[in-house]
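Quick question, first post here. What does this chain look like in 3D?
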Amino acid sequence: MDKRYTSISKFMSLVLRHRPEVIGIELDEQGWVAIDRLLAACAAHGRALSRADLNDVVMHNNKQRFAISADGQRIRASQGHSVAINLGYEPAEPPEMLYHGTAVQNLPSIRREGLLKGKRHHVHLSADEVTATAVGQRHGKPVVLTVKAGEMARAGFLFFLSANGVWLTETVPYLYIDEPTDP
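> Answer (accepted):
Ran it through. Tokens below.
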């Protein structure tokens, strides 16, 4: 995506995941908002964009952060919300191993507390190490942690698979985390 689309994507993440009130919109209980309402609110707050721009951002976002409803009338973020919503994802059987990308400087707190969701609804996990590495690089020198997801599921932890392939869970106790030998 070019710089303009990156800017639009970041702004959409802000209003669809964290602060819809910035442009005076409300998300429904599952995080949806009418596209016409979103576009009008963006324009009213100096961030005008066309439906074509919105469609391009949704379609070409490499992380597929946004979803458009089957009827094409509503949009929401696929995961990562800090506002109270229920995405309606059903529990899913995870693969044996999942991955979490983070920065080396976060390892001491992870060793003490495991992976915590913080202000978000869930801990985000990747199905592959390449994606986890890319996530970790956003925060500093990356390290990829291996999460024993199958073992966690057998112990009663719930996992959900978001619309864009991100695995979600409430928490990951350190007991279920393997660190690389040389972070």
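The chain has two domains: 3-77, 98-178.
The mean pLDDT is 89.
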